[in-house]
């Protein structure tokens, strides 16, 4: 009965940790309900596999371990569907499942490491951290080859440019696409006037940096 009690205790710790990560940190901040079952299922599935590996030991444990590696290697995190901070939550759920699923790791030690991970995620993804830092992909219907003119245009439309990368220039259609990291101006702050140029049309794909 002792191994069963240890497994139940580790499972309870894992469910508590992933529940806090998913329902107390992730969902209140990002509001993506579709990823909640993915996080929970991935965590519990990994916990189950780790617990099974520990139980099997040398009797097929190596083969099962390679199978686990193969399954994890085919997970596709498409950048157009999952943001970078959500990828961090994916890996956090994986780590929690690994930590809590190791039966030979003391419960107190696993709880401490899980708590540290949850604290780091809570602080690193806090809405008040770097609140004015942003990223935007801007499409301009004019090609600005002068860096000063481009900076002035970005500052006028977005905020203080910190770094930008020109990802596309089309001289036929006379447009350019710029990936910009910038800092929003405080409310009421004067914006930099853009350089004289033809009219500009822009579209933004917004996301927090």
Give a short overview.
Keywords: Membrane, Transmembrane, Transmembrane helix. The chain crosses the membrane at residues 7-26, 38-54, 89-122. The protein is of the alpha+beta class and 209 residues long.
Task: Please give a structural write-up.
The chain has 209 residues and is an alpha+beta fold. It folds into 2 domains: 2-124, no CATH class; 133-208, no CATH class. Helices cover 53% and strands 16% of the residues. It has 6 helices and 4 strands, in the order αααααβαβββ. It has a 4-stranded antiparallel sheet with strand order 2-3-1-4, with helices on one face. Helix 1 runs parallel beside helix 5. The model is unreliable at 199-209 (pLDDT under 50).
Helix % is: 40-55%
Count of individual domains: 2
Principal-axis shape: elongated
What string gives the helices and strands in order?
HHHHHEHEEE
Keywords: Membrane, Transmembrane, Transmembrane helix
Transmembrane segments: 7-26, 38-54, 89-122
Protein name: DUF4956 domain-containing protein
Organism: Streptomyces mobaraensis (Streptoverticillium mobaraense)
Topology:
Elements: H1 2-30, H2 36-56, H3 61-73, H4 84-101, H5 107-124, E1 133-140, H6 147-157, E2 160-170, E3 175-183, E4 204-208
Antiparallel strand pairs: 1-3, 1-4, 2-3
Helix pairs in contact: 1-2, 1-4, 1-5, 2-3, 2-4, 4-5
Which keywords apply here?
single chain; 209 residues; alpha+beta; 4-stranded antiparallel beta sheet; 53% helix; 16% strand; elongated
